[in-house]
Backbone:
């Protein structure tokens, strides 16, 4: 018989899932987004609401895994060279934002009567935005791949990196700090560098080989287990070094961004990431101390306005100074005005170091309310832009500049002999292609030659989507298995109807089936190669070019007649019995 402790986990799971299933659809229907739904659900079921969940201590570590997996997936989408191009936004814009915002907010909190150490811990804590909130909002709005979205993400990355020096700052200003604190800071920096190098070296030189061996087993669950192991393992290494767990997972993702397994890994992890992210947002809602919030409501509301206004203004000014348009700078300002989850880490570290103050409880409430208000600020900004665009169309052009992600024009499914030739033809014209295959040896050979071939299952909609099927103008199904091709055609018809479907038919029976599926184009490789072979043989035997052309046209015509006959008869297998038809008489 199960113990009561075991049953409590089951009860908690039911409560969380039930609250999410009810709250999120309502929030989406009201147009406020899923994040607000999760937050409100957390407030209702949490210890300060209906107390269905009396404590968040056991849940928070699990919920934080959602942020870890989110950053791992984002790392998979960012190749190292692209990250290098973002260095100015990460180290320039990001550092400037943290320092300037921390100093300004610290000075303001000092004017409100807080001691300088507590004021500046609060100021720098609130200078850090919420990676989870900001990225989720950017993705829900479809803006993550815009120029402003990438700049905002660069700032968030610097904020994740900055947690180490900020924790060092807390240890220096705390009453319990001493001479040895400087030595501990130097030691922490050394540990941090070592942890980063371990994650980079393992990810760069080991992981691709491991995934190649696992893919050969054809066990999808083992690939999933390995992906989770990589994300959580790298996060654990960073956590031991005192860094953000999410940053460790992000680095591991970047190291796998050029791997042939990136699309499959992203598709496998997505359901876990989404559920755990929802759990994270719910735990944030649960931590809002409603009695304290209501008792200190005027101060909290003033604090929310001050933090979001000053932070947004600084973000807008820095973005403009560093080259963003006024529209993009405005989008950055309304994407990152909230304080983030790292504020809680700094406040806890300050309290543990002797900087205990009731002000941290109020600051925690301010942090959570800024998160809640961020989606509404974004909606207000969009409404203002629409109004100005209607009022001054010649002066306001609220269009978003998209980052060139080099989306494929053609997705090639199957990179065997046939798929290679198709890809060569397309690339010879300068068209961009992405190919997927499930043969790891074939993929390894292709990638050694710099070809964009990835590991993937053509019967999975999520893998096709991540490989670029939604943006593809044409999907070339070059696989050898008719059953796999049939499943792929059904998926493409349902989920990617804009793409033309070109198919490789293995024989006449398969061609009949593809004709019934009404694909845009199909060809029998054996038929075409037989035509070419016969044409060359006739030429060698001295037959005139005109006669060879007539023979080819006649064979093609009669083959089409036979194909249509079997199509009407409805017996596809009969088509493969075939027969050699007697030659037609030469024209007089």
Residues:
């Amino acid at each position: 018989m199960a113990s009561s402790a075991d049953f409590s986990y089951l009860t908690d799971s039911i409560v969380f899932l039930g609250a999410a299933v009810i709250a999120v659809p309502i929030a989406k229907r009201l147009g406020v987004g899923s994040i607000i739904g999760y937050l409100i659900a957390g407030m209702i079921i949490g210890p300060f609401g209906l107390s269905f969940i009396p404590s968040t201590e056991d849940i928070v570590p699990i919920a934080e895994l959602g942020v870890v997996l989110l950053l791992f997936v984002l790392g998979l989408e960012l190749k190292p060279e692209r990250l290098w191009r973002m260095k100015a936004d990460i180290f320039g814009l990001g550092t400037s934002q943290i320092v300037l915002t921390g100093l300004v907010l610290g000075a303001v909190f000092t004017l409100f009567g807080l001691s300088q150490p507590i004021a500046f811990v609060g100021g720098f804590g609130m200078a850090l935005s919420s990676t989870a909130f900001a990225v989720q909002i950017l993705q829900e709005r479809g803006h993550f791949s815009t120029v402003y979205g990438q700049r905002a993400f660069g700032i968030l990355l610097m904020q994740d990196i900055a947690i180490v020096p900020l924790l060092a700052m807390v240890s220096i200003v705390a009453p319990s700090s001493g001479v040895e604190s400087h030595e501990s800071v130097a030691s922490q920096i050394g540990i941090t560098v070592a942890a980063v190098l371990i994650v980079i070296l393992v990810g760069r030189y080991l992981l691709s080989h491991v995934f190649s061996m696992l893919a050969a087993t054809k066990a999808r669950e083992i690939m999933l287990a390995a992906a989770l192991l990589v994300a959580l393992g790298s996060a654990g290494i960073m956590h031991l070094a005192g860094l953000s767990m999410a940053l460790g997972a992000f680095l591991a993702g970047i190291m796998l961004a050029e791997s042939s397994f990136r699309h499959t890994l992203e598709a496998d992890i997505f359901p876990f990431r989404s559920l755990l992210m929802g759990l994270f947002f719910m735990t944030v809602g649960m931590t809002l101390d409603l009695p304290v919030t209501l008792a200190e409501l005027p101060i909290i509301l003033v604090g929310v306005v001050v933090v979001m206004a000053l932070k947004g203004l600084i973000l807008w000014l820095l973005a403009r100074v560093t080259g963003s348009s006024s529209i993009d700078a405005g989008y950055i300002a309304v994407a990152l005005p909230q304080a983030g989850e790292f504020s809680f880490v700094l406040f806890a570290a300050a309290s543990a170091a002797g900087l205990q103050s009731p002000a941290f409880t109020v600051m925690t409430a301010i942090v959570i309310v800024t998160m809640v208000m961020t989606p509404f600020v974004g909606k207000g900004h969009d409404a203002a832009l629409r109004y100005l665009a209607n009022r001054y169309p010649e002066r306001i052009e609220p269009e978003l500049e998209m980052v060139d992600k080099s989306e494929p024009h053609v997705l090639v499914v199957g990179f065997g002999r046939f798929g290679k030739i198709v890809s060569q033809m397309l690339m010879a014209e300068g068209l961009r292609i992405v190919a997927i295959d499930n043969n790891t040896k074939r993929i390894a050979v292709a990638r050694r030659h710099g070809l964009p071939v990835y590991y993937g299952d053509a019967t999975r909609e999520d893998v096709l989507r991540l490989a670029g099927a939604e943006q593809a103008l044409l999907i070339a199904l070059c696989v050898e298995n008719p059953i796999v091709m049939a499943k792929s055609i059904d998926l493409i018809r349902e989920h990617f109807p804009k793409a033309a479907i070109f198919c490789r038919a293995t024989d006449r029976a398969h061609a009949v089936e593809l004709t019934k599926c009404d694909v845009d184009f199909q060809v029998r490789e054996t038929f075409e190669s037989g035509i070419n072979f016969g044409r060359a043989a006739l030429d060698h035997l001295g037959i005139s070019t005109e006669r060879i052309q007539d023979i080819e046209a006649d064979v093609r015509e009669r083959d089409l007649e036979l194909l249509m006959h079997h199509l009407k008869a409805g017996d596809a297998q009969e088509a493969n019995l075939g027969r050699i038809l007697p030659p037609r008489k030469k024209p007089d």
About this structure: The first helix runs from residue 4 to 30. Residues 41 and 207 are 39 Å apart (CA to CA). The chain has a mean pLDDT of 80. The longest strand covers residues 500-505.
